[in-house]
Design a protein that fits this description.
Layout (H helix, E strand, L loop, with lengths): L1 E2 L12 E10 L4 H14 L5 H18 L3 H6 L1 E9 L9 E8 L12 E9 L2
Parallel strand pairs: 3-5
Antiparallel strand pairs: 1-2, 2-3, 4-5
Helix pairs in contact: 1-2
Length: about 120
């Protein structure tokens, strides 16, 4: 497991900012590792427990499935990314999320990119 800032140089879309990134190698215990990391990251946002559990369940399921995918087996890595609205600290309300998976994208240095799972957390309304 490696915490990395490689993604932080590439914001995926205006209005979103990276909040956390985790790089896993193929042989890690994904449930435990993802749970521990995601709990620490989401704790910083002071989110409701049921919402955190929903994101956690989705992340653990996606990571477990991805660990069996061709892109992860070949590259031996999986990236989990958490993104939040740029103005997330000034807003209150109900949070939601969606997940985007990206396969085999090229890295900045031209090498094969690993499998990415991005979680976009947003405020509803």
């Amino acid at each position: 497991m490696k915490h990395t800032d490689s993604f932080f140089r590439q914001v995926p879309a205006p209005g979103w900012e990276p909040f956390g990134e985790l790089e896993l190698t193929v042989n890690f215990d994904t449930d435990h590792t993802v749970g521990k990391w995601l709990g620490a990251v989401l704790n910083l946002l002071d989110l409701p427990a049921d919402f955190v559990n929903s994101v956690l369940k989705s992340a653990q399921e996606a990571a477990a499935k991805a660990m069996k995918s061709v892109s992860v087996v070949r590259s031996k890595h999986l990236h989990l990314l958490i993104l939040v609205p740029t103005d997330h600290m000034s807003m209150g309300g109900t949070w939601g999320f969606f997940r985007v998976e990206k396969f085999g994208l090229p890295a900045e240095d031209g090498s094969a990119r690993d499998h990415d799972i991005e979680f976009y957390l947003y405020l509803e309304g």
